[in-house]
Design a protein that fits this description.
222 residues; DNA-binding; homodimer
Amino acid sequence: MKTTRQITDSLYEQVERLGKALASPKRLELIEILCQGEKPVEQLAQAASITVKLTSAHLKALKAARLLEARREGRNIYYRLADIQVATLWVALRTAAESRLTSLQTAMRALVTHPNELAPMNGKKLLSQAKRGEVIVLDVRPVDEYRTAHLPHARSIPLAELKQRLKELPVNCKVVAYCRGPFCLMAREAVALLNKKGFKAVRLEQGVAEWRTQGLPLASDN
Amino acid sequence: MKTTRQITDSLYEQVERLGKALASPKRLELIEILCQGEKPVEQLAQAASITVKLTSAHLKALKAARLLEARREGRNIYYRLADIQVATLWVALRTAAESRLTSLQTAMRALVTHPNELAPMNGKKLLSQAKRGEVIVLDVRPVDEYRTAHLPHARSIPLAELKQRLKELPVNCKVVAYCRGPFCLMAREAVALLNKKGFKAVRLEQGVAEWRTQGLPLASDN
DNA sequence: TTAATATTCTAACAATCGTTAGAATATAGG
DNA sequence: CCTATATTCTAACGATTGTTAGAATATTAA
């Protein structure tokens, strides 16, 4: 027979398992990357800039905490979020950190280096403008992430290819670039490049995960 | 000049600080207790069943992560949540754990020992019933927590005093008891006692924190 | 001032975690 | 079958964390 205290302890210890999974920067980054869609281990390792072995260990920990699931396809093992709720939890944690930690606020403010990089835009307003063709919404993530899920009316040009594919964009139309979210630097780089080349470009702070938690619609290529 | 990777790393490391603060069962329990209102160190230690020294260390960690704030009043130092958002984060984490971890689900199902302990009730429905006097909403937490915030129309009888104060309750009216939340066992004990004594009592799963995150109104004594 | 109370600080130990390297496993293709 | 590739497992290390005990600090009351 367990005492009341033992029962209470065991309940909090269960939640601790989730907390521990969220207590590592690389695990958080892996979650963020997986919010963009499923990926094999090596690709995750590359995206997070750590060794495959370490990636595997972190993925194991996240899987043990039931935050991830895995499937094998040929030689690769693809990991994915166990549930959209996991993305919601990540966004909640990041948002809480942004509003609570002044050090994070200053770190993020320091990222706004170029004066022509405007403030993040309103979601619904952007949607209607994109629909009417008044702005071009540009997804600068890798193509596979675009295919999994992207903003409605968005066009895909990965950051790595942007320099070569500038001709595809009309010069006079305003461009709104987005990437994985507030912690991802790809859209910032894209905007800097575009503005240097004479385009009128601004950055959208939200990524697909934030977009989804706000209840806004998404599209996908299948 | 920092590289893109160094910037990205530092952003995730900031969020890690929050994650780490949530990666200890006792710190989680302290947060839950503080969701009920501010308390001095010794009372927190007692409520969490740990030593004052250890409590102080955990509180220090939580304060460093900006989840708590403190104020001195005479000889005591009162801790409180830095923001209601912290309570929201705690509820989000607990909810995620409840839905993701089967071990937690079974642990919680095991708590429903008495068949006369009914399923948790709907918030708005309860509110209107309480307003019309069809049910008695009973807050069995310590009085100071009741004073800080309680459900509308709720009556306070702390669990410790319930046995002596049974006469205050009408026998024929249905009683809905609540405490700190799903992880708190006080309401369960109260319901078990009431039913044994011939009352018709059920337990409300939500506590004040859950109530608030659902956007429902609260009352307080000042 | 001194004594009592509440809390924090410091130091130390054991347990846990992140990280790395080397061995092991599972699959695909020849 | 063998070989190459992708991933995990095992073992080990150093760093970090939870916990405890003893000293130090701050406040109140006498």
